[in-house]
Amino acid sequence: MKTKPYIQDDNVLAYAVGTTLDRFIKSKQADFPFATGELSQLLRDIALAAKIVSREISRAGLVNVAGAYGHTNVQGEEQQKLDVIANIRFTRALTKGGEVCAIVSEEEDEVIDLQNSRGKYVVAIDPLDGSSNIDVNVSIGTIFSIYRRVTPIGYPIQEEDVLQQGKQQVAAGYVLYGSSTMLVYTTGFGVYGFTYERSLGEFFLSHPDIKAPVDGHIYTINEGLQPYLEDDVLEYVAHCKQKGASARYIGSLVADFHRNMLKGGIYLYPGTKKAPLGKIRLMYEANALAFIAEQAGAKATNGKNRILDIVPTSLHQRTPLFIGSEKMIEELGSLMKQIK
Q: Where does Mg(2+) 2 bind (predicted)?
């Protein structure tokens, strides 16, 4: 019988489409000797919900899913219809997946106890970040953190399962719904980005082993807060301007963070004279992005301490957040110490 060897580089007529998210996750299962596939399945559940939410967002201008829902969440913010839809989609996916015992969501006042005492994981999630940008077709996103429960399997969840430090995360990520839909995640072994190919219904590896530039030329802050900012932050913003840095602010945390991680920059949302604790939520925003940032070689702080070392005391706890390129964070820290 005659045979012909397969030539992998024969791409004259058909280009390679790349590695799917599912295949990549399976290839990394050996990184977690304590798991037997549950974490991999959990990441797949999140990816499935992200595909559904991406579909809903892409048709927001054609069906009645844009605009305000008519309720406010625990943050006192007016919920948008897509906020509610995203919360339902992710909660359903995580419930049906069977790997999660509890969910902490920005859109829910209390912990969602899934009554799954066999579940090994707790998920903290902002189902749809950047609500103010929904109606104007600007990039928005999803942010998630994954923790292993600390109490024994088979028992009801306890507070210590939920209120864990960021450094206890086993995985974290975000989904960016922009010119394309991207899922970026880390399990503590580097940061990887996947782009959604709608015609195939698959996420494909597009950004392997992301590394943030050590320095950057972008600063991101809501300068409308200037009358309420402390002197050290104002001084740092002036420093950025003096060295020719560009101001870039989208107003969606995921989009601002993603750009700065790829291009080099710093995101600042400090405490203000009106809101000393800032705006960013620790459990399902700051912790996730801080974990990703550190895995990419960047840094995250509240101005005094590393974000991942903060001990949470409540589900919706807020924190100042300074996150970005290592050198820029160090310059900020040095300046804050000098002024104080």
A: 126, 129, 285
